[in-house]
Every structure is written in C-alpha cells, then in structure tokens.
Specification:
766 residues, mainly beta, Immunoglobulin-like, Ferric Hydroxamate Uptake Protein, Chain A, domain 1, Maltoporin, Chain A, 22-stranded antiparallel barrel, five-stranded mixed beta sheet, 41 strands, globular
Amino acid sequence: MKKLILTTIMIGWFIFLYGQDCSLKISGLVIDDHTGEILVGAKVALKNSFVKAVSDSSGQFMLDGLCPGQTQLVCLHHVGCELFKMDFNLISDTSIVIRTETHFLELDEFKIEFFVLDKNVLSTAKLSEDERFNRSGNTLGKQLEAIPGVSTLSTGNSISKPVIHGLHSNRVILLNNEIRQEGQQWGSEHAPEVDPFLSSDITVIKGVSSLRYGPEAIGGVISVSPPEWEKKKGWSGNAFGSFSSNGRQVASGILLENHLKKINGLFFRGHVSAKKAGNIAPPNYFLGNTGLEELNFSLASKYERGKHEWEAFYSRFLTELGIFSGAHIGNLSDLQAAINSFEPAVKSDFAYRFSSPKQEIKHDLFKLSWNTSWNKILSSKLSYGYQQNDRKEFDIPSIYSSVQDSTSPDFRLQLYTHTVDLEVTSILGKKVKSTFGVQSLRQGNVRAGRYLVPNFYKNQIGAFALVNYFSKKWSGEGGLRYDVVQLKTFLYENNLLIKPEHLYHDFSSSIGLSRTFGHHLVLKSSVGYAWRPPSISELYSDGLHHGAAAIERGDRTIGEEKSIQGNLSGIYKSRKLNAQVDLYHLHFMNFIYLKPKNELELTIKGAFPSFQYEDLAARFSGIDFSLNYSFTESWVFNTKYSLVRAINTTENKFLVGIPNDSWKNGISFSYTFRNERIIQAEIDADYAFKQYRFEMDADYSVPPSDYVLLNGNVNYQFKVKENKFRIGVVIENALNKEYRNYMNRFRYYAAEMGRNVSLKISYEFI
C-alpha cells in the first residue's frame, strides 16, 4: 500500500496538475454619492500587487488577470479622495460600485456596494467575521445555524452536526483545509472532528455539489479553511478566550505564524486550542454527565517559489464528552415513562466530572499539496491526504456485559483513509474555462467490542469535467462526472466469516446559468442529477448505537440513492437593502431513510427505541430567505426564514426528523469612531415553529411545541497600532425559556439549555 501511495505521488509530480486560476476580474463604477456624478481618473489597485486601473470617462474600471483568494482593494488618490481599503475573498469575477462623498477636497465618507457574482451558479453562504466571533467556542454545527437553510441534528448539547435542507451525514461533504473529512460521518451523533477556531473562512454550498466534490455531496458542501498566509514578513497571529455561564465552559486558543525574513516565500504556522465544560442546565435542573473536554492542535508550512507553491499540514482533534445518562433507561416501562415525562427521572448537580456513557474521539489529518501555474492558460493542483479516526464509546457496565473494565471501550471504530486529488484548469479564450479532475479514495475500517457495523474496505475513484462560460451579463456552468465505488465487507454469520462485496457506479451531471441585471441584481438557476452509494451503516448496522441511545438496523438489499434537483436563486444588493431568496426542489427516486419502528426494545444494556433503514421515493422542497435593511449607517434590520417540506411519496406520508420552520429577526447597531474604534450591539428573536408535518404513529412522541428565544450581544473593538483587540458579551435564551428542540434526538428525555451568558475576547497582531 505504501509503495502504491508513493508511486502515485511521484507520478503526480510529472503530470499536468491543477493550481490557481489567475483569470478572474474585478470591474466596477466609481461615483460621487453626494452628487451622483461619475468620478474620472480614480486609481484602483490590489494591495501588494502591480495590478492597477484608472476609472475612465464613464467612471468604469477593470482589474484583470487576478488569482483567487483573500485580497484587499484600495483606491489611490483621486482629487478630493483619500486612500481607502476593502478586504474580501475573490472566488469569481466580481462587480462593485464604489460610492464616495467628497466636499472641497476632503473625504467625508466612503461607501462601498460590494456584489459578488458566483460563477459556479450554486447557492453559497459564509459566516461573517461578526458571526464567527459571537459564536466562537460553539461546535461547528451550532455556528452554522446562522446561515438560512442550515440547521443541526443534535444529540444533547455537546454533539451537533450540520443539516442542509433536511439532509446530513453521508449526504453532506465537509472539506477540512480542502481535504474531504472522513470520520464515521454516517452516525447521527458523530459530530464533525473539526476545530472552528482554526478557520477564518467557513463556506456552505447549498444544493447538489456532486460534480466537483463527489457523490456524498448530494445535499451540499461545508468548506472550513484556515487563515490566508500573512504576506508581511515576521511574526503574526491571533488569540481568543471565552467563558460561558451555563456549563461553566472555558475555551481558549492561540495561532502563531512566521513569514521568514531570511528565506523569501517560506511560511510556518502552529495553533493550539482547548475547551472544558461541565453539566449543562435547562431552566430548572442540571443534566448529569453532559460535560466535555477538548484539546486540538495543528502545524502547517508553505513554500512559494516562482509559479510553484508547496504546502504541508497536520492537525489533531481530541475530544472526550459525556452522554446524558438519562437517555440510558433500564427497562421498557421506565423508558416510556421518561419519554412521557416533562423532566428527567434523575436530576443532577453541577460537576465537571463525567463518566460512562461517554465518547472519546481522536482524529489525525495530514495533507501535502502542490500548486503550479504552467503558463497563462494552464494551471494544476495535486494533493494527498491521510486521515486516521479513532472512535471509542464507553457504555454503563451491566452484570451481563462482557466488558466490566470502565477504562476499556464497549465499542471502538478505527477508520484509515487515503485520498489523492488531481485537478487541471485551462483558460480557453477570454470567456471559457475548463476544469478536469480525478479523485481517489482508499479506506479501511476496523471494529472492536460490541457489533454495530462490520470491518470493511472501500475503494473509490471519480473523474469529472466542468466548463464555465463568462460574459458581461451571463455566466454558465455545465459538467459531467463518473464514479466507481467498491465496498468489501467482513462479517460473521453462523460463526462463519463471509465477505460480501458491492460495486456501485453511475454518472452525475449538472447545468446552471446566472444573469446580472445592472449592478444590483443577479438571478441564478441550476438543475442536476446526482447519486450516492449506500454507506456501511445503511447496509449492515445491526445493534445498539450507544451514542444515539437507539437500536439501528440496516438492509443489505438497498441500492444507490438517486435524485434530480433544481434550484432558483435571486440576490439583490444595494446601499440600503441586501436580500436573497433560494428556492429548491429534490426528487429522490431511491431515498435511504432511517425510519422509526415505533417499538421499544429491551436489551442487556437497557431499553431503547428502534430504527430501521429503508429505501423509498421522496420529495424535498423549500425556501431560504434573508434580508438586511439599513435604516441608517448605524441601524440595520435583518430577517431570515427557512422552511423545508419532505414527503415519503411511496406511501404519501411525511418524513420524520425534518427541520421545523424557523424565523429569525434582529436589529443591530454599530458606530465607528474616528480613531477606528467600533462598538456593536444586536438583539434578535428566534422563532421555531412546531413541526406539524408528521404521522401520529411514526415517532416515539409528538413534536414539541413552538417557542421564541431572545438573544443579544454587544462588543467593542479597537486597534493598537496594527493590532486588533475585541471584547464582547453574548446572551442566549435571555428569558430562560424552557423548550425542546425537535432536531435534538434527546428531546425525548430532557429540555434544552437555559440562559447562557458568555464573555468573549480576541486579539489579532501582525
């Protein structure tokens, strides 16, 4: 195996590879906001670049031949205009309107309307810097709840995984520093092993993204990227700390980076973060055994020389977290009583200490990549990734258990994954770009202890081709992909080892268009066909899934999941109003569904609800809507609304476990002092509708009631020379509302966390 990997890497060094596509454009208009007149002769440039432009007689400018990534736009001295700066992430051709207000050669105010044309025609969303700060210390899933159309599937308070348009687990790909994260993601309570502190860019691609990323992106993609490398030589970095009242959580981290002064183009970076929390509390009691401990670190290096760029990255994610003990019930009658009760049968006091049932997870990720631009039209990238995921789950020992040692896991899974990805991009004239890619995966799983899923080997290879078209108003994307997946399993039946094999293969395809109208409006539409092979759990799970506190059984006769999806989006951005609406529809010909059997099963480990994987026809449709309106430069109103409708069309019944409608409204205030000090405050109300779309006999209890949560935050930031300091206070569930979240699998047993007040501090230095 090692020889194969080394051979693959060596071959990759001598073939056409993918790198940066340096063909992007920034165009725009410069006008006087006070008079409405165009400004001629305004010099616009990219910082630390020789790329410059001057606004012509019509106020228009264009910067051409740009590479993707973090950049800073600056305007050089126009008559009556001082230097200004604007940071953004260039991912596609961009159009902006720069509005200045000048009086007698003195700059009074500089306003910028920034409009991004997403040339991949998919609906994308990002967490803003303010959202990342206010949600720092939370899990990745909790942070992403700020994005319309994204919710979380939770198992208690400390375990959450993102849900995009009602789809999750093996239908959503997580990219960790451009490497596809592999960590037993089929489990409902297997949260992503990612440290959000390391990221400076968290992007969600909503909708079918299988063409570029593979079959498992049938529901969408989440990309977590580390900060861009600091071009300024010397030391730089950032640090953060937070304390939360509920659970008395303490979290902190630091990142240090050095751009060597003596060796041009050589960078080093290291980071470490830690988190510790105790029992969380709903309004009237504590939940026993709900604490956690977490320790993460990473090392990275990059070397640039000419048109070549090499990067190495290693990270380790370590977490130990308790599972609410009230979810593990001894007998059937007690379990049914716990489900029907308003409060847990056993209440606890606060404690940092926790014991079984619990999880211990270690995830190692290693990455090597090489980017190069061969010439003006051809670029390439080769990357290799290795991951090792070690998951241990500890259960409460019983007199019937074969494992009585509390230090030995009752259940253990070890997953080893190798990936090799190759992409080649070429520019075909001024309006056409083509991308060809090959992606491969080799994976092995080893289990120990109680049986849930068998050992297996998985081999996967896929190739895709994309063509992008750009014009002044139109952009389009179309492509085709073909994947082959081989799954070989090892399991015992009647004390005999059998090795069933599965082979899956199919094409994926998509086409999309976008059209801009003036400088403010863009309409996008796309349609695609996607498929996904069944996961090992969907085929072969059979037993107690400890962390989920449920019995789960697979069906080895299940075939590939296939779907057709259509999307329509509209985005409007102006000085006062930013609005976006996304409409989507998915038709699954063969949807793989974990269906509640509405039966309680008694085992030697206790009594648990039972679930069965089935395949059926299904339909998903919904709307995501967001709007920001600026009453003044300081006061902004925002609203976000999301709904998803999911139907089992085989039986004409509602699907279980689909996010309920949500509506969030808020108003924010910000004021910038002349010395660049900024004060910000926000208050918002989150309304969760009751999930009325359910079948009476399809779940173990009816969905909980609707509720409204009042939240708020205030923060203050200032600069000391070039360094930025920020301190803030965040309050969640300010009214200490007692409620249950329909998307929490432990809603059967307890209420959600009550009031939580957090103090957050961050410091960035260069």
